[in-house]
Write a structure and sequence with these properties.
The chain is an alpha/beta fold. It is built from 5 helices and 9 strands; from the N terminus they run βββααβββαβαβαβ. The chain has a single domain, classed as Rossmann fold. The strands form 2 sheets. Strands 1-2-4-3-7-8 form a 6-stranded mixed β-sheet, with helices on both faces. Strands 5-6-9 form a 3-stranded antiparallel β-sheet, with no helix packed on it. The longest helix is centred in the N-terminal third of the chain and has 14 residues.
Length: about 170
Amino acid sequence: RYISRIDKETHVALIHGDIAGKKNVLVRVHSHCVYGDVFHSVDCDCHALIAAALEAISRADCGVLVYLHQNGPGIQMVSRDGRRELLTHGRTQSSFLPSERHQPLQHESGVGAQILSDLGLSTIHLLTNHPRKVVGLEGFGIQIVKQIPLPASSEAAARTIVPSWSD
């Protein structure tokens, strides 16, 4: 269990097997989503992604799930054509207008990097569906050797928004 000094949020690292001194440890950094993680919402892939990550980690010799509890934009209200729409983060990033896209805060990747560093990890295989260079990790001496995609729920991919209403 880790508590952030910045926002007092509590984060958790679930460790499978012995990761001490291991290279290329399988890792998933997952931001909490009460809608998906707890209620299995079909508007997002969060439950499917965390389940797939835990399955992959359990099949590996060792692995880590870092569960970040942070206040993110799980649901956003936007105005389009005089209407207000409730958007869930379950929409793919490409379906959002550029101004609506969630841009992770620097401290979000920093918190995950600090936890991985504290666990003594230096090279990892990252379970992610958003392959990209994660700038914050290198500052903590962590190298992503490989990025591995997770299966996503087809139900969530088919949904885009929840009903809208007028102002």
